[in-house]
Amino acid sequence: MGNNTILYSKRTKVAEIIAADNDLLSILQRLGIRLGFGEITVDEMCRRYGLSTELFLIICNIYSKHDYTPYTGSLQQSDITHVTNYLLASHRYYKEVCFPQLHEKIHRLVEELDAVNRKLIDKFYDDYDSEINNHFMFEESIVFPYIEKLSAHSKENTTGFRISKFEENHSNVGEKLNDLKNIIIKYLPEEYSSPLRFEILKDIYDIEKDLQKHSLIENRLLVSLVQKIEKSYE
Amino acid sequence: MNNREKTKVLLIEPSEIIAAGFKEIIGRNPEFILMETLADPSYYSNTQRKADIIVINPAVINYNERFDIRSYFCSEGENIPIVALTNTGYEESVMRQYDGCINIYDNAARIVQKLHSAIEEAQLNPKNELNELSGRERDILVAVAKGKTNKEIADEFNISIYTVISHRRNISRKLGINSIPGLTVYAIMNKLIDISDFN
């Protein structure tokens, strides 16, 4: 991901943003933006798709600038639904695009391995897969519904849960993926020299980076917006 | 204490004022002796004697060249503590290379204290270590991979839980593997344990 100096504004053309940082294509993809949009600006695109322009610009900055600290001041409490909608779209992108792609390659790789290594990699990946899916499920079934109720100004049925619990539960889901990376780089025996190993590593690096940005959005944007609402009820 | 027993300090600092001040402060301490002052690290290869500790101004190093201070000053297997001498902040990734950091506004007592802790730090967390596991680390890795708790491992090896945790941290750092399932995969791939232990 580049460290671009271009300033993204609502009048910037979407095509220019992509030219500045093609990693942002995946943001368009997960938001369901159709290509062929001509000279459309960020603002026009967001209005057409019912997205928050402010949020879209923040996300673009998070993805293309290192060490970018999102500033929530420009977001309203009403933007919170936009944030959870984005996070849901992002989960879908991981579940329907990124992980199936990685899984398919891992599956092809293990077919080349001997019985022991096959079992090891298969099981390790399956464990990781269910861990990350549980993580997404926890957010989708507990955290996001809680936020929805909270922003609908209804305090009922939110008893017990607070967003600080989400932070506690937001354990390091990247740990196993990082382990898998090192196992494939360093420890799976050299005799398995399939080019798939390189392809898998590239996928893992991409997913790792994306998940990092994703958690930044959760930890910085989502949590602080929710805390503001929680405080207003106290 | 004669000079032979003193800890020999090599200073690499382009500013004569700072170098003179550092020499003065070190000179007052009976445990340390300033062996030599260099204005630039490139003179280092001309230095015949070995320093026990190197104090260096990070500004003399060109970061764009990704200069690895460790391999520059230490030959293989050597582990000379290296301390930064600075009046400004550096990125964490830069500071991680050093065993300690002296600020030019530190007083004499603090400077001596920092030299001591840098020596200790270099022994505890050697930064140029070979990434091979030690025998003890391998034994502990096997126990972890078999699913034993820190308490069980401490009892088995007759060491404190704190020591177990410290070994585990070092193992994970060396291998780049943190999760227990990951360590198990490593142990089986390297034939430290057998996969049949898990059926």
Features:
heterodimer; A: 234 residues; 2 domains; 9 helices; 0% strand; globular; B: 199 residues; Arc Repressor Mutant, subunit A; five-stranded parallel sheet; 8 helices; elongated
Question: Can you describe what's shown?
Answer:
The complex is a heterodimer of chains A (234) and B (199). Chain A folds into 2 domains: 14-68, no CATH class; 76-233. Helix content of chain A is 68%, strand content 0%. Chain A contains 9 helices and no strands. Chain A has helices spanning 14-20, 25-30, 42-49, 53-64, 80-110, 115-151, 163-169, 175-187, 196-233. In chain A, α5 runs antiparallel to α6 (115-151), α5 (80-110) runs antiparallel to α9 and α7 (163-169) runs antiparallel to α9. The termini of chain A are far apart. With 199 residues, chain B is an alpha/beta fold. Helix content of chain B is 41%, strand content 13%. Chain B has a 5-stranded parallel β-sheet, covered by helices on one side. In chain B, β1 (7-12), α1 (16-27) and β2 form a beta-alpha-beta unit. In chain B, α5 crosses α7. At the A-B interface, α6 and α8 of A face α8 of B.
What's the topology here?
The complex is a heterodimer of chains A (234) and B (199).
Chain A: H1 14-20, H2 25-30, H3 42-49, H4 53-64, H5 80-110, H6 115-151, H7 163-169, H8 175-187, H9 196-233
Helix pairs in contact in A: 5-6, 5-9, 7-9, 8-9
Chain B: E1 7-12, H1 16-27, E2 32-38, E3 53-56, H2 69-73, E4 82-86, H3 92-95, E5 100-103, H4 108-124, H5 135-145, H6 150-157, H7 161-175, H8 180-189
Parallel strand pairs in B: 1-2, 1-3, 3-4, 4-5
Helix pairs in contact in B: 5-7, 5-8, 6-7
Mean pLDDT of chain A: 89
Mean pLDDT of chain B: 86
Percent of residues in helices of chain A:
55-70%
Give the neighbour order of strands across the main sheet of chain B: 2-1-3-4-5
CATH class division of the largest domain in chain B: Alpha Beta
- Beta-strand percentage of chain A? under 5%
**The CATH topology of the largest domain in chain B:** Rossmann fold
Distance between the termini of chain A: 41 Å
Summarize the helix and strand pattern of chain B as letters.
Answer: EHEEHEHEHHHHH
Tally the helices of chain A: 9
State the major sheet of chain A.
none
Q: What's the CATH H-level superfamily name of the largest domain in chain B?
A: Response regulator
Overall morphology of chain A? globular
Structural class of chain A: mainly alpha
Unreliable spans of chain B = none
Distance between the termini of chain B: 63 Å
How is the quaternary structure best described? Answer: heterodimer
Supply the number of helical segments of chain B.
8
So what's the overall shape of chain B?
elongated
